Amino acid sequence: MEKFSFLFFAVSLVLITAEEVHAVMGSYRHHHGSVKLFVFGDSYVDTGNWGKSVATSWKLPYGITFPGKPAGRFSDGRVLTDYIASFLGIRSPVPYQWRKMGTKLLPYGMNFAYGGTGVFNTLVNGPNMTTQINFFQQLLEEKWYTKHDLDSSIALVCLAGNDYGTYLAGKGTMQGLPAFTTSVVHQLSLNLKRIHELGVKKIAVTAMGPVGCLPVSTASSSYQNCSETQNSVSKFHNQILQQTVQKLNNQSKESAFVILNLYGAFMSALKGQENHLGNSKFNFPLKPCCMGVTSEYSCGSVDVNGTKRYTVCEHPESSFFWDKVHPSQNGWHAVYSALRPFLHQLY
Ligand SMILES: *[C@@H]1O[C@H](CO)[C@@H](O)[C@H](O)[C@H]1NC(C)=O
Ligand SMILES: *[C@@H]1O[C@H](CO)[C@@H](O)[C@H](O)[C@H]1NC(C)=O
Ligand SMILES: *[C@@H]1O[C@H](CO)[C@@H](O)[C@H](O)[C@H]1NC(C)=O
Ligand SMILES: *[C@@H]1O[C@H](CO)[C@@H](O)[C@H](O)[C@H]1NC(C)=O
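Above: inputs. Below: predicted complex with 2-acetamido-2-deoxy-beta-D-glucopyranose.
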């Protein structure tokens, strides 16, 4: 039996003021005035909602590439949110936890995502997606944003798979997974509808990436082979999601809901990585850059006496994965490049 241990834990925050998002000015702003981005989900899009004391994302070596020190992202640098924001021609929106300090960033929207969470409660004690949307609704009631603001807004909703990680950790078997997938996607569709009903005009939801290709799944093959069994979890989720979103769009007048195909984007980015690296010494595109020295440790681990118990690769800029479950900035950039041809759907 395969061991299922993928969980997208994100723990921790960002120096918002120092943030210098590499903005590729999209044409979006010219058409729509000031677009705002509202973000819901987990560590693939969290830019710093967890507290500094709880999250590994606030520990070295997270953030070493961008912004240069740990800042609450679960990567060495930028994550999906930052690239989507740059596509829209705006700065990365302020994390919800920092809204009172991040007034300069308020015009760009807000990020409600917490690493490790899902549509249901998971192994981390963070706000599930329903609670994240409650935070959003509360702020709308408090008039942080007007209806007019929402007219030119986009939501980014990301579900990397923590619900499945939690389910499989509890059950230890894939039995019952199809029914569970149906309930995950059903809850997700209620969430998407609710965000739309709150006034957001366009909602992008990520398909699941290939969880069987994450280092946590490929370690047993020395990072050589993706696990097809675990990838089937993603594929089934994505199939149900596709049908569900088609139905939602059928019910809404404009096609309000768009799927961002992370599965295909990860796969083509990984392939590009292979070709690019060819027969060079980096011939394990699935191997993470940052790892614990042994399996008891992970990226960011230190002993009680402060001794580092992890290693960081020599060239983070050429690795796809940063740690066991998260892409590096280079990885996210490659994923973004693969998604880019489809992002006109956000207009
Ligand atoms: C979300 O979390 C709240 C608080 O723990 C809980 O009451 C609610 O049932 C959860 N929602 C879902 C859909 O799991
Ligand atoms: C990886 O897959 C290849 C091709 O399917 C196979 O030949 C090889 O034995 C696998 N390696 C491991 C370590 O499982
Ligand atoms: C969309 O709605 C039309 C008419 O209501 C229906 O015939 C069609 O089957 C629907 N398509 C999907 C994918 O639900
Ligand atoms: C720190 O503690 C570990 C055991 O936990 C020990 O092996 C190591 O030598 C110690 N390092 C220092 C610098 O004291």
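The chain is about 35% helix and 10% strand.
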